[in-house]
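User: What would this chain look like folded?
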Amino acid sequence: MIKTFKHIGFSICILSVLTLGLSCEQSQEVSIDLSGDWKFQIDSLDQGEDKKWYTEALEETVQLPGSMVENGKGYDVDLETKWTGNLWNDSLWYKSPKYEKYRKDDNIKVSFWLQPEKKYYGAAWYQKTITIPENWKDQVVTFNIERAHWESTVWVDDQKIGSENTLGTAHRYLLKDLKPGEHILTVRMDNRVRDINVGLDAHSISDNTQSNWNGLVGELSLTATPKVFIKSIKIVPDVNNKKALIKLTIENTTGTVNTAQIKLEAKGTNQHVATVKSLTEDLELKSGDNELSFDYTMGDNPALWDEFDTNLYELNLTLDSDAGVHFTTEKFGMREFKASDKHFVINDRPVFLRGTLECSIFPLTGYPPTEIDSWKSIFTTIKNHGLNHMRFHSWCPPEAAFDAADEMGVYLQVEASAWATIGDGAPVDKWLYKEGEAILEAYGNHPSFVMMAYGNEPSGKNHKQYLIDYVTHFKALDSTKMYTSAAGWPLIDNADYFNTPKPRIQQWNQNLNSIINAEEPQTLFDFQSIIDNTPMPVVSHEIGQWCVYPNFNEISKYTGVLKPKNLEIFKETLENNHLGHLADSLMLASGKLQTLCYKADIEAALRTKGFAGFQLLDLHDFPGQGTALIGVLDAFWEEKGYVSPAEFKAFSGETVPLARLKQRTFLNTDTLNASIELAHYGAKPLKGVTPAWKLINKSGDQVSSGTFPQGDFEIGNGIALGKISLPLNSIKAAQQLTLSVAVGEFENSWDVWVYPAKNKEINNEPRVVTQLDAATIAFLKQGGSVLLSTKKGAVAADKGGDIGIGFSSIFWNTSWTNGQKPHTLGILCDPNHPALADFPTQYHSNWQWWDAMSHSNAIILDEFSTDLKPIVRVIDDWFENRSLGLLFETRVGKGKLLISGIDLHTGIDKRIEAQQLLYSLKKYMSSNQFNPAQELDMQLIKGLYATN
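Assistant: Here's the prediction, encoded as structure tokens.
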């Protein structure tokens, strides 16, 4: 992208005197800022062009840069609002009785994404009087809109200049014969999806994310250049030969041949990067475009760019022609990013991509920032969480994002703005070539820009052949990037890598049949078979998608144009169900489970030899597509309080110790066996390091410890450190222990549980039954104590039997997945409750609860008194917010009843967690601490079950 020199007055004078031999009187203003007041008018009837609004003064006023909604323009949201986005199951909002009150004119609140204060879909006109300086008389003037949404059409006075419809790059209009003096500049913006359909859910346009806004943002300016000017710059680093190929397009608009001289000089942007010897060449330029290339030697030891050493150069270009002097600059980095067998290397050092998505989620503005500090803040956050990569899902960010990534060492996957049906001959097929080419021309010199795709998850009968041709075209156009067909699929032979959803522990529509929900807890599994059977590097697509309960404290942060009416609905329904006091606890407990799920996903990737990297969906919340609260950070990239950046980085950073455990729960007659390995992707190999391990209890006391042989560890993964074999017979009481492994400053840990193989006998054991038959009821009424533990499936469908419970958190959300299981978000309990005294637990789900959650039904308690407090609560989906019990107690006449939604009978001889939980419950019930406060009606209790 050309960055026009914008300084005026004294600064340009110094440049002229020192480099060009010109006088101060010849210095010129080369840029005019157009931000500020603009005239404005909505064109809802689409009549402005026919009525020549560009010749009239528009009626209203707005501030630009900005969007219509930022200026309070548009219409209130109502039932007729036209949205850009597929509603899928979210369309239930329009007809479900539970949302009826949110469909009233004075209380419109949609449940499926953030709600704009105003909404407008169509054409709108923007107009400003501009003054062209006298000294621009013989210049080419360019009107720049850094980010337009979507299609712009420009007039100067009554002359139509043209139209642009790129989504990922600036709209620029050359005004070649503009005379000095006043002119009327008019822009018609149209945000409708018309013949170019990039997909209603594409994050470049969708109301799911940034919103389908109408406006002009970022830099708005007029710039002046001589009639012979540098139009485009392409810099191709050649690290091995210590040079850069500089490709220029110079446009000569004079109509005659011009003699010229070009000077190139690369300077380091910091004191550690030396200036490179300049290159000067004489040119003869024909009328029109001139394509030129130069081999530019970068010196004996050029500084290289990567995630650890963000060395940048600024190429200064001075074109001195008969038409005048054009000076411009372009930043670049010396780096080579390529595929090597099944992984990536940068400058021949292996890279493991640890990435997250940016889905164009910017609640305050509804559009992406164009200031570098905003992007530096985001990239600082992801790096603090151990990540080094960001994928831009079906959109391309503004240049500030690339500048920030260059400076901070973040690898970017950029996409050509679509999530579409392609290859069937629709206009979008040609448009995607135009969009991709514009993106490469604008941002292709940024060293952080290493990967590119057409967009997300394509459809269409001929999409595969289309993408084969697409990749072939762009590989020939710019060889400095790695290309894939699309994010998600298909696998094509000419791609550089495969972006696939296969390597993750929960697939779409897998329900309870996934690794995490169907297989007992262990850390042996990896994705080796997928890697071994794929003939190119694999980067996993959208792993995670683990939900957390809403953080209602976040609502106050939405001070901009998008409002969290969806969160307000969920908060109100929770309060209506008399559970509002639990909001923070539900969020924190489900967040702990969410983090555990992400750790399992990420560690499986790091255990896989030859894996190229992963892309999380997501480190921060996605507020659309039904409301997908899948981030450990909120939509503002801020913490929620249940996992710190350092805790997350321990399992996702550049260097991560890993343990392969075939189980997470043990008897004290067992031996804990673990194979310890290392994934190390730091700047350099680790030299002379002695790995160490320890096993500690919840008080922090050390149970055992050891070391592995000192060694030097190269960059890569699957590095064996050693084995642990530890008999557990010294553990007498049930307890949670933590195994941690440290390799230098890098430490990771795993919770395990040890239970006695033989517990102490219990006096006065309660009666344990699977159903409430007449004899059991009579026993209760006479003062007996009963534990009711039914089989999974015994609870009536409308009492909780149709709630899909698994161990993991909800995947994406139940709305957009049409009720995909699991439907719940783990447990919430008081870990100090005496019923759990011999079943060590935290207040949230951890791996020892896998067995219980895999053999249980939730029980809906809404019809009982709100004073009933479950011992263990199941956290419901926020769309329902029911009071769900897993364990709760009640009085029945003179008797006492503990009701378990967990099956503590079936196959219990092989379920050591169930054995221990049952023991803990019976021990509690035999004590004087078992004294339920609430009395429930027996008929209501019996009504909980399908059969009695």
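The radius of gyration is 32 Å. If you want, I can go into more detail on any region.
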